[in-house]
Design a protein that fits this description.
By secondary structure, this protein is mostly helical. About 50% of the residues lie in helices and about 5% in strands.
Length: about 375
Amino acid sequence: MILKRHQTDFPSIPQAKRYPPWAPRFWNGVNAGTYARLLWNNRYRIHPSKIPMTILVGACTPLNSILSLVQKIVYTKKISQTKLIDPPIFIIGHWRSGTTLLHEILVQDNRFGFSSTFDCFVPQHFLISRLLLSPILRLLFPKHRPMDNMAAAIDLPQEDEFAMFGCDVPTPYWRIAFCNQLDQSVDLLNFKNCDESTLMQVHDGFSKFYQALTLRDQKPLILKSPTHTGRLAKFMGWFPNAKFIHISRDPHQIIPSTMRLWQALDETQSFQRPKYTSQDLLDYIFHCFQAMYDGYFSARGLLSEDRLIEVRFEDLVANPLTLLASIYEQLQLDQFEKYRERFEDVLADRRDYQPQKHELEPGLRRRIDAECQKYMSEFGY
């Protein structure tokens, strides 16, 4: 046994304990039909302590259904006729590797649009509901993410994978709702064993969401999601000429940090209380890691240098402006100097942020060395 403690005891998650039942969850944006199917498919295996959350989420679903219908009536034709303005830029990399930090910096270049937390919470009606709902969500939303001390707000950039909840699209994140089924949907991280029907649903879900963002902002998009890392081959085909920024980080920090991520999300977002052991969770994390990087390493060689750049979190922290300049140069984004001051301002706001450091047991360190050997070799760790 590498980690002897039960999952709920490793490590402490103070932010999660302060996450009240009325705070927004991912499920607050789903329609009534989607919510009913989610509970039915999981046989209502809800922990008694999560009943208040279940009721509050359910109370939101009729409004989502109505607003989604209104947006569908008003905007379906306009969305379907909207073409993306230039191919998207995707920030990819394993969870906890710095994708959020890099995304929040790069969107200071206001030539680009992006998906905000609000957009991803209510993807089926964000075009019509922002004035109505954003003041309410702004009051209810926690100030920090449950897994770390990074700021959270409805207007900040958010990973587009979360939008797939509200779009009722297959996503590996559905596991979070009923968190004790750890291996559920791992195939969706690289599409290796997915049938054509599933692939079509995923493609349509992301395409329509990106079209809606483009209709609103009339800008090319810069997006991020760790889940797209192993999907590189499919996203290259679905979004021709898209550009990709892959960020890596020392896996001796990624793996324990990812454990903390899933613990926090499962504690705050699930309708269950986690019963899996820390060993079970660790096995799941390595399963996901292998699925993601089998997909990534098999496809990255198909991209030219002006469409893929690989950067390191450690360089982003140590020399952010130098790294940003290299991204702009290699991907041919132009105008770096025009936005340098904006980058400097957002970096100044984050100068006091300190990434968590994890002390590893020898057994866990050895397993990381074995499981992540190719990753460490390819990215210089």
